[in-house]
Amino acid sequence: MHLVDIIYNPVIVYTVHSRNDGLALTPPMGWLSWVRFACETDCKKYPNSCINEELYKEQADRLVKDGFKELGYVYVNIDDCWSEKERDVHQRLVPDKHRFPSGMKALADYMHSQGLKLGIYGDVGPQTCAHYPGQNDKNGSNYFSIDAKTFAEWGIDSFKFDGCNEDPKHFDDLYPKMGKALNESGQPMVFICEWPLYQLHHKITPNYSAIENTCHVYRNHGDVSDGWNSIISIINFYGDNNDLFIKYNGPGHFNDPDMLIIGGFGLSYEQSRTQMAMWAMFSAPLYMSNDLRALKPELRQILQNKALIALNQDKHAIMAKRVYTDKNTQIWVKQVEPKVNNQWSYAIVYLSTKSIGDRYYISHKVSQLITDTKNTTEYVVHDLFLDEGKEILGTLRVSDNLELKVAIAGACRLVKLVPKY
Ligand code: GLA
Questions:
Q1: Which domain holds residue 392?
Q2: pLDDT tens across 93-141, in order?
Q3: Which of 162, 217, 234, 261 to mutate to test the pocket of ligand 1 (most atoms within 8 A of CB)?
Q4: Which residues, 6 or more positions from 107, have their beta carbon under 8 angstroms from its beta carbon?
Q5: Which of 79, 338, 387, 396 is most buried by its number of CB atoms within 10 A?
């Protein structure tokens, strides 16, 4: 855009720059109900796990009491199935009267009183994926502005905009319109989109520069589910499309590999560490979808590992690059702070998908993993899972091998190489 547009046409500035609003400069962190609690609405049969205001308040309480909030996990995001099936006489959305009797404003106030934020969910089509009202209307009009204003009145801080029940051909028009309505509501809201995902499924090439200008967070891969197959499929997908996704990740705009399922039923301890490691390497949003009321301490430790959170929140938000793959191994490298004498630090993951055997050594020359370095650089090696990165494994020259013993079946090792002063 030319400077002249900025001066003479403020509307253009307003509509083009929805992400340059200072929101989500590092990947947003919090909790999201979908994978763990899905669309359970039977609160008689499932009083502790149906989608109702108590559920969100109880998870919020655990974010605060168990130390998640102070580490940055501040968003509590409602997903599908929260509203009445019909709008009110003013065409406004109404929270389900039995499950959210106090209303959304009260729930947002509750979150804010705890230093947390509340997110809500909608859909670019006339209905959400679970057939609750969406923001569009079959008759060619839409509720974008009405709903954005309603969310703003309630004090909502984040909005996930799904893509069910609408032709993805129309997304390039509809998503920016909703982004504009959110901007015009005056309430800062992190805008979470599923725009590229549905387009990719329909073989439409997503316009990522429009997407990153409109949304803070955007999903590319299908829904995460509670199991390792889902996690490795997402990791592979990001590896296979590495250059594209690296290009469209940065402060204020993030690719979204979907929720952390650590604390669910599907991952081993080692696989849980790997999901956290890889989401940190991706600079991805960290939305846990688990039951914080029943989280095992060793899993909480993974989710609260300060060295991994710092890696995830690195101010440059450069996504990791997959630099090596074979049948059993993937190696990922991420450029991070601190920079010492103009040399970057690097986080390196050795990920093993081997399916039989004991722990074994993987060994690669540093110069083959990190190409953008001086031959003379010496690195101090920290294991980010040992004492949250405070423990030093040793030092390495560029010509040395980084040799690490790795378990199998989705286990990983994660080290950070910091140039020596
Ligand atoms: C889609 C989304 C999920 C979730 C469900 C809710 O599948 O991709 O993340 O929001 O809809 O119905």
A1: 321-419
A2: 999 999 999 999 999 999 999 999 999 999 999 999 999 999 999 787 9
A3: 162
A4: 53, 56, 57, 100, 118
A5: 79
> Among this protein's residues, is 80 annotated catalytic?
no
- Atom 12 of ligand 1, nearest CA residue: 129
Considering 285, 312, 339, which residue would you say is the last residue of a domain? 312
CATH of the domain at 132: 3.20.20.70
Residue nearest to atom 3 of ligand 1 (CA): 223
CA of 270 to the centre of ligand 1 (A): 27
pTM of the predicted model as reported, rounded to 2 decimal places: 0.95
Q: Rounded to an integer, what distance in angstroms lies between the CA atom of residue 92 and that of residue 226?
A: 34
In a domain, 405, yes or no: yes
CATH of the domain at 353: 2.60.40.1180
- Examine the fold and report which residue of 260, 284, 312 is the final residue of a domain before the chain moves on: 312
The answer to the question of residue 395 being in a domain is: yes
Residue 265 structure tokens:
């039923």
Q: Where are the alpha helices (DSSP H) in 263-324?
A: 269-282, 297-303, 306-312
Q: Whose CA is nearest to atom 6 of ligand 1?
A: 80
Q: How many domains does the chain have?
A: 2
CA 194 to ligand 1 center in whole angstroms:
9
Q: Which of 370, 369, 383, 371 is nearest to 412 (CA)?
A: 383
Residue 226 is a catalytic residue = no
Mutate to test the pocket of ligand 1, among 80, 83, 128, 195 (most ligand atoms within 8 A of CB): 80
24 lies in some domain: no
pLDDT tens-digit series, residues 183-208? 999 999 999 999 999 999 999 999 99
Q: Which of 79, 96, 157, 162 is catalytic?
A: 162
